[in-house]
Amino acid sequence: IMRVLELYSGIGGMHYALKESEVCHQVVAAVDINTTANDVYRHNFPSTALLNKTIEGITLEEFNQLSFDVILMSPPCQPFTRIGLQRDVADSRTRSFLHVVDLLPRLSKAPVFILLENVKGFEKSAAREYLLRTLRECGYAVQEMLVSPTHFGIPNSRLRYYLLAKLSGQKPFSIFVWTLMVSRTPHRLACNISDDSTEDPTPAPPSSSSSSPSPFPPQVCAPEYKTCPSLLKATLEAQKKKNQNHNLSVKQIQDFLEPQENLNLDQHFLPPKILLRYAQLLDIVRPTCRRSICFTKGYGKYVEGTGSVLQCCMDTSVEHVFPRLDQCSEEERVQKLLELKLRYFTPREVANLMGFPPTFSFPESVSTKQQYRLLGNSLNVVVVAKLLQLLLS
Ligand SMILES: C[S@@+](CC[C@H](N)C(=O)[O-])C[C@H]1O[C@@H](n2cnc3c(N)ncnc32)[C@H](O)[C@@H]1O
Question: Active-site residues (predicted)?
Fold first, then answer.
């Protein structure tokens, strides 16, 4: 039985992934400072020891007493996000992580396995450099990768950096993983994915013929795109979304929705004020789509880039409503937009897309906004479960 230490435990995404992986385990302690997240964790895992304290406050002796074989951790990602300041190790939020790395060589019993999850961007950080150097010095074999749920047939983008480490003497990492996981090294990974991409890369096919066709669809060579790069970008985005919806290896959104009769829909529709102001920025999907964008902690509060919204009325279409919208009066605009019946995904639906099992629930005291916030900070359980199987078995 593996003794697991779950650091930055949040709402317990790692714990659910462990359960899903079917590896025989015991979580010896979970640690987090967010009291709301801890309420949710305790609600779902009442018998796990949950430490409500800062990780940098845990001493070497305390760590030694826990006597764990595995560390699972998803440290705060704000210091590394592509849209943030990228203050990296200079950001005070990285302190606790550096504390963990510092303690690693000094533990009386080195953990056999480590899994770290973070945002895309971490692969270029000094924090990663420091972790890698320490792991090498301690004799770990390491594999890193960028993986999204879409690679496992789930219609939700959440491209994340993962590091798997095992102490030398363990079974080597299986090569199979790397063909599946886009690429072998973060360097190549970083090259495969353009920096501003918000969506997932498609795993690069093995380079076969040298006469590869142009990566752009032919119509983008049209002259109007030369004078208007933003139009080109929008067209490429639209094309990409269309392609994603045709990828039959990915499930449809409707497989993750709550039964409509259970929902108080009025509560979830986007209000006219938001529609008027942000219509052009919405990422709209239908139940039959095979894609959605990453749900972040601002979902339900901010609109742009925080997660997709669902079109509930199929009698009209986005293509029908949007093109002439700016020629309409405000009143007509609202009318047209309301016809689409756009609603937010419910927290339960977001949890479904993130692979949380039906047994997962929130205590009643946690508001909808807080639920979105906590889910946005969490991880995809199905993805991490697969990685744990690869790491631990
Ligand atoms: C990216 S989230 C991880 C979420 C978690 N994996 C889940 O499934 O919900 C980072 C978590 O680390 C916690 N955290 C941040 N700094 C911390 C620190 N210094 N000590 C303990 N917990 C911390 C935050 O409260 C947050 O819940």
Answer: 77
Tens digits of per-residue pLDDT, 63-88?
Answer: 999 999 999 999 998 888 877 777 88
Distance CA 193, CA 157 (A): 14
Q: Is the CB of 379 under 6 A from ligand 1?
A: yes
* CATH classification at residue 351: 3.90.120.10
Question: pTM here?
Answer: 0.88
- The separation between CA 207 and the C-alpha centre of its own chain, rounded to angstroms, equals 28
**Residue 138 among the catalytic residues:** no
Q: How far, in Å, from the CA of 55 to the mean position of ligand 1?
A: 9
CB within 8 Å of 385: residues ≥ 6 apart: 16, 17, 18, 20, 21, 355
Between 177 and 388, the more confident residue is: 388
Sign of the torsion formed by the C-alpha atoms of 13, 182, 21 and 254:
positive
Range of the structural domain that residue 249 is part of: 245-377
List C-alpha distances in Å: 71 to 66, 113, 163, 197, 370: 11, 7, 12, 30, 27
Is the same domain home to 333 and 356? yes
Q: What is the ipTM metric for this complex?
A: 0.99
Q: Which amino acid is at 189?
A: L
**What is the per-residue pLDDT across 124-147, written as a single tens digit (0 to 9) for each?**
999 999 999 999 999 999 999 999
CA distance 132 to 247: 36
Query: Are residues 179 and 300 located together in one domain of the fold?
Result: no
